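Fold this sequence, please.
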Amino acid sequence: MEKSLKTLLLTSLLVIPLSLAGCGTTPSTRFYSLSAESAAVQAASPDNSTIIGIGPVEVAPYLERSQIVIRTDDTRLSLTEFDRWAEPIENNIANVLAVNLSRLLPETQPIVRPWTDAGADYHVVIKFLRFDSDEAGNVTLNANWGIQQHSSRSMPVIRHAGIIQPGSGKDFESITKTMSMTLALLSEQIANELKIVMENNAAATD
């Protein structure tokens, strides 16, 4: 009996360090954010006189989570456990769009909701239906968006964006970089339409 008790105690002493060592190998959580990737465009004499309100920006419910979503096939999604967004993705998207548009249209001043009494001349509203990567790192963006003119409350531009951006790697640094590049392509589409609307309004007031 005494020998069995000694054996049990010895086994316990060996198991405890191994258990603690196992706990020490738990991966730490990594956080990511999207970045502004649009190149700056030089204007003749930018005065930032036109204010562009960004938002509301809405995302599909499956994106409303901190985990980064990977699409494994047409109907299946995978949620990463230790790779997460640093902030709600809709907030990150809105801020990146504002920076991208400020570079593409330096004569404007994009601001993100809520913008209190800033008196935005135009509002860019967006609903993201899909914005995710597959296992190879390729990113797909599907979104409905429009431009609303503040003075008339009309929406002269309503568009659908469908963008597929080839990935440069399967790791999450590469995936988030590709997502940022995809968002830059959407920003270019929005900037082109905003420029047309602003030019048309300027011509109508001459």
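The helical segments are 2-23, 89-104, 172-205. The longest strand covers residues 122-134.
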